[in-house]
Amino acid sequence: MPTLQCILIDDESKAITALAYEIQRIALPETELLASFTRAQDARDYLSSPAGTRVDVVFLDIEMPDLDGFTFLDAFPERTFDVIFTTAHSQYAIEAIRKGTFDYLVKPIDRDELRSALERLATRRGHSGATEQSALPDTPPIRASDPRIRFEVDRKILFVEPDDIIYCESDGNYCRIYLESGKTLFLTRQLKAVGLQLPQDQFLRAHKSYIVNLHKIKEYHRVEHYLLLSNGKHIPVSKQLHTHVVNLWGSTGATP
């Protein structure tokens, strides 16, 4: 099985050591650490060199003294590598989505979340066909270019276009997905697990109980702190995201 090639960028050497240790403890997918950097400038030079063409994923801190993570990414407008942010700060999640990053892990990094991110990344980059397909051996394969999301509902496999999803709602250990057609899918999976299947640049965990499709947001009400979706549903916005939702769509209007 081909190996995911990664580099780690964090101004704290202890954070690099801890993350490298966790990556090494994950058996599948196999991940090789090519290099680690405490200076973002050095990492930028590495990725710009021939050696950088081998990199599949960059684990990137955000708040660094010489170059912050977002400015770092601006140096690579056409990236050949995926990016997983690793930060102690949750308030940058929306900006990370705008930058098109693959995932956003908050320190201290949960090993299960790290494993899930690597498994999804391996599948996306074609390094592994076993992770998700092995759970459903009788499911016809999906082309790598097929954007549809696969959900198991009532012993059936449904293929859903991301744009057909308006929002997802937690129901304890289960989840409900509301579609443009008016149909609701009931999944025996937690909201967090469902969120890992969704395109990270199109869906936002607006609240602990809700994930919304950014394309379906009609209005953001800044005083009451809720989103109005295309189907008329009001979705509360968690306190941690208030400021960043305003920054995402501007501070002068209610409509994104």
Describe the protein in words:
The protein is an alpha/beta fold. The protein has 2 domains: 4-124, Rossmann fold; 136-249, LytTr DNA-binding domain (OB fold (Dihydrolipoamide Acetyltransferase, E2P), Beta Barrel), CATH 2.40.50. It contains 7 helices and 15 strands. The chain has helices at 13-25, 40-48, 69-74, 93-98, 111-124, 191-195, 242-249, and strands at residues 4-9, 31-37, 57-60, 82-87, 103-106, 149-153, 156-160, 165-171, 174-179, 184-187, 203-207, 210-213, 217-221, 226-229, 234-236. The strands form 4 sheets. Strands 2-1-3-4-5 form a 5-stranded parallel beta sheet. A 5-stranded antiparallel beta sheet has the order 10-9-8-12-11. The longest helix is centred in the middle third of the chain and has 14 residues, at 111-124. The model is unreliable at 128-144 and 251-255 (pLDDT under 50).
Task: Tell me which CATH architecture of the largest domain applies here.
Answer: 3-Layer(aba) Sandwich
The secondary-structure element order is: EHEHEHEHEHEEEEEHEEEEEH
> What amount of the residues lies in strands?
25-35%
What is the first-to-last residue Cα distance? 44 Å
**In the CATH hierarchy, what is the class of the largest domain?**
Alpha Beta
Q: Care to count the β-strands?
A: 15
Any chance you could write out the topology, listing elements then pairs?
Elements: E1 4-9, H1 13-25, E2 31-37, H2 40-48, E3 57-60, H3 69-74, E4 82-87, H4 93-98, E5 103-106, H5 111-124, E6 149-153, E7 156-160, E8 165-171, E9 174-179, E10 184-187, H6 191-195, E11 203-207, E12 210-213, E13 217-221, E14 226-229, E15 234-236, H7 242-249
Parallel strand pairs: 1-2, 1-3, 3-4, 4-5
Antiparallel strand pairs: 6-7, 8-9, 8-12, 9-10, 11-12, 13-14, 14-15
